[in-house]
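Continuing the series of single-chain predictions for the mutant panel. This is the parent chain; the variants come on the following pages.
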Amino acid sequence: MPFTRSRTNPLDKKVCFFCQQENNQQLYTVRTENAGKCLKEAVERSDNAALKTRLSTCISPGDAHAIDVLYHKDCWTSNVFNTLRAKKPRTTKIPFSQRSSLLELINLIDVKTQHKAYISMEDIETTYVNMLDPDDFEGHVPPFSRKWLKEKILTELPHLKSVRPNVRKPAVIYSPHVCEEDLVNMQMTIDMEEENSMKNIYKAAKQMRKSIETFTTTNERSTMQITSNVHDVPNELYTLIRWIMVGSAENLEITKRTRLVDRAALTVSQNVMYGFKSSFQVKYKPKSESVSFRTPRARENLQAQGLALTVHHGTRNMKLIDLLNAHGFSISYRRTLHIETSLANAVVANTRLNQGLYVPPFLKKGIFVFFAVDNTDFAEDTPDGKGTTHGTITAVYQKVNSSKEAIAEPLTVNDAKSLSVTSYHVEMLHCDKPKPQPFKRSEQFVMSPGISASIQLTQTGWVLASALSRLKQGEISSKIPGWAGYNSLLSESLPLTEVGALPLLPEVAHEWSTLLTVIAQANQLRNLVVGEDHPTVITFDMALYEKVVQLLDARPNLKQMVVPRFSSYDTRK
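Parent structure:
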């Protein structure tokens, strides 16, 4: 009687595919495509009609791994492994030692994958090669390759699976059944850790927003600083940024590197402060999609203002400033113009309070002050020499001394409502060209009794060395450094010097009236700072110095108060 489907029991997928029995043995699942193909080929080669009937009841007989076919290891060996091995023709006889080494390796992998999640194919290959004798490896049947070894392992142990996590790394063999529980637990642990980390970050961000929102600077709104420090930002924000950059290290190995990190942390903190959005701004619903955020004036810090002012001073480029503003680094171009207008009006107000003389706020009473005068038209060139901008600038220098009293109040900088500057004009003193004076020098150079003997000796040494070096025949210039350079080499440390500038005079520097006006301004400032008992020291370049000497020779009363100095120092620097 022929064998029909009605004469066999239906396939029970909860028990072994081959024996259809529950005998307390561990069941394995066909999880790989290779194992499914081996099962299909073995059933087709066998004479077991029941197995063929069970396989034909599947949706796709060749896709056994997709329907989770279960089996016992012994059943798989007898029905699949032995069937395929017996039926395949053998063209070359495999040495006994090679077969025993392979069998030992497969048993070893089977045991290890029950306790270890992954085994690298590189480690498996090394173990197998070490098991073989040198002669067996050279005469391996077929020629040895890692691909052949992997196919052998997956054929013998169909419950294992191969995966290659990285192209540059070898494949690994693992048991999905063994590592499934570990992977789930590991993923749950990772998810919980990530969730806890995000909660902590959110709490820190919430606290940081509260610190920024409640932070108030000690600077007055009507004044403008020129330097920033850690007191301009919340301490919590500055500390967090610094921790992100270098960890908990307070000081680095080199002082310069510590200063660079501190400066960078302060810059990032100020950028965060400038880009901060209040709760009201976040919740506000604008009427148009094109409406962006508007930064309140209270959030403008020295970083945002100073960067825009510096770029505008150096380039006068509107697009560059607006680009920086669009990325949250600086204020807008129009806001920059308003601040410059406010500063100009504050300077004019200072000048009016001091009877037409601008007094820089950094000047302290009782500390010596000196000046440098230069023209501002040397960088311009036109085809006909006309249409250039002529101006005269006076720089003011004074050593830093915070204990002394300031002469003038800080500039009061109010918000400018327009870009119009308050009109201001310096009254130029009239001066005709002085008549040539006969050369008469009645002064005598003497050493002041207030100068120590060591300083007298070092200065006398410089004078003699400079004179002797110029007496050598063929020497065009002396190799001895200048007086300022010589003293800087002898000095160990000098206090910092503050530098300011008087308002630009829109007059040609080499005009006699211009020179007389700047000398008069310098005399007025010197009187305010140190009184009339000290001279006024002013530095000029050669072209102006020659004219100033002629002007002073023609005015003896002025010559007693003014000491002109020649130098090539550029006031633009």
